[in-house]
Amino acid sequence: MDNLTHSLVGLLAAEAVVRLRERHGPLRAGTQSAIYVLSVVGNNLPDLDFSYSRISGKTFGYLLQHRGYTHTLPAAVLFALLLIAGAFAWAKRRREAFGRADGLLLCAVALASPLLHIAMDYANNYGVHPFWPFYDGWFYGDSFFILEPSFWLVIIAPLAFSLRSTAIRVALWVLLAAAVAALWYRPFVPLGHALVLSALSLVLLHVARKISPLSRVLLSLGSFLLLVFGFVAGSRVAKGIVADQARIAFPNARTLDIVATPMPSNPFCWSVILVEQEADQYLVRLGHAATFPAWLDVEACPFDRGANPTTPFVPLDVRGGNRLRLTDEYRAPTVELNELARERCEARALLRFARVPYFTKRARDRTRVIGDVRYDRNPGLDFSDFRLSPAQGECPPHVPPWLPPRSDLVAQ
After folding, report:
1. Which residues contact 105 (CB under 8 A, 6 or more apart)?
2. What residue numbers bound the domain in which 197 lies?
3. Which end of the chain is more exposed for a tag (fewer CB within 10 A), N or C?
4. 3-state secondary structure of 406
5. Domain membership flag for residue 387
6. Does residue 158 have a cis bond before it (omega within 30 degrees)?
7. Residue 158, burial from CB neighbour count under 10 angstroms (0-12, 13-18, 19+)
8. Against a cut of 0.85, is the pTM above it?
9. What's the rounded mean pLDDT across residues 134-142?
10. In sequence order, what are the residues at sequence separation of 6 or more whose Cβ sits closer than 8 angstroms to the Cβ of residue 286?
11. Is 112 a member of any domain?
């Protein structure tokens, strides 16, 4: 997820902790400030991997080091220790002290915050591998778009009246206006969704003005969790639609993976990637799924019409009623993908990241492109694409031990 969403989730968590703690007695100003700082900062610390990602080169550094070591359980514990040490050093400098109960509360907040970050990052199709060094495999939630304005709405609208800092309240009002404006950006958010979510924001604001600060927290938290549940359930339904149609349309193929990504602010429309193997062929099929066609069928769902990927797709027309359209297909010999992995260290490195790998035929200059279909949108090199020279190039340094997502196809 983007860092704004991580910060807002941290703010919501801190507000919930403060309001619940205040039910048991007044909270010292220093402890209250520490809770907010630890929660918001801790929800962003795992993204410090940008500071060292270049150790594996420009392209491979981002692919292999982002969502890497800093997005693991051991790193979360280390971040928690650093946050607590900073909080106690700050208190000592101010000649203050945290009581035992408040100190334990701060420890819990410091640990929960980076874990929340990892959980949110798990929920999209990029993935994380939180159990390193005990297990190096990737985990994918396939539930959220990388930038989700509807989360901003349901977090900000109820909390905008509660926070004590005037500067933060003003910033939240500006962000709320930006989130509502983002809903009206075409073509990704249907008109009906923009209307419903804009109306929901007004309702949340109206209700929040009339209730207590604790009730505002519960309203924001409940709305956020309901939205999370909607996207998670939508992902399961979309994958089920694709799996059912794959068994009918491609009975001889073995399904290896289904990647699902929702449209922004839209848990009813999904971009889907079906990854299969049939005999000696590796197959990737792209399409769109509608999980609630009574509201939006697959023809009405928005999608990225401006995409012009490098992947050598051919047109495909597989229909599953008003719920599914598979529109493009890429196929390649499995043996050729294995040859690339065996002969080229750059390919081996990329395959530690690429969940849906592709490669092109050799061009006239004998180069070819290898990349990941998930993020291949433009005819040039996207951030997950790499051009292989005719001869073996310099091998990427400091390649982490992540298990290749497609180890079911490629032996490394």
Report:
1. 17, 21, 31, 35
2. 3-232
3. C
4. coil
5. no
6. no
7. buried
8. yes
9. 96
10. 271, 272, 273, 274, 313, 316, 326, 327, 328, 329, 373
11. yes
**Tens of pLDDT, residues 68-95:** 999 999 999 999 999 999 999 988 888 8
Q: Are 291 and 230 in contact (CB under 8 A)?
A: no
Residue pLDDT, tens place only, 212-236? 989 999 999 999 999 999 999 999 9
Is 227 found in the same domain as 280? Answer: no
pLDDT category at 194 given cuts 50, 70, 90 is confident
State the DSSP string of 353-399.
T-SSEEEPPP-TTS-EEEEEGGG--SSS--TT-EEEPSS--PPPSS-
The rounded distance, in Å, linking the Cα atoms of 263 and 255 is 24
Q: Which of 301, 332, 363 is the last residue in one of the domains? A: 332
Q: How many domains does the chain have?
A: 2
Q: Let me know: does 114 contact 128? Beta carbons within 8 Å.
A: no
Query: How much of the chain exceeds pLDDT 90, in percent?
Result: 67
Residues 187 and 215 in one domain: yes
**290 domain-assigned:** yes
Residues 145, 2: Cα–Cα separation, whole Å:
10
The pLDDT tens digits of the residues spanning 201-213 come to 999 999 999 999 8
Q: How far apart are CA 10 and CA 17, in angstroms?
A: 11
Q: Give residue-wise pLDDT tens across range 361-391.
A: 998 889 999 999 999 998 888 889 999 998 8
Residue where a domain stops, chosen among 286, 315, 332: 332
- At 73, the amino acid letter reads L
In terms of domains, do 80 and 92 share one?
yes
Evaluate whether 176 touches 152 at the Cβ level (below 8 Å): yes
Do 295 and 180 have their domain in common?
A: no
Neighbouring C-alpha atoms within 13 Å toward the C-beta of 246: 25
Is residue 240 located within the same domain as residue 228?
A: no
132, part of any domain: yes
Query: Residues 152, 83: one domain?
Result: yes
pLDDT at 193: 82
Residues 50 and 198 in one domain: yes
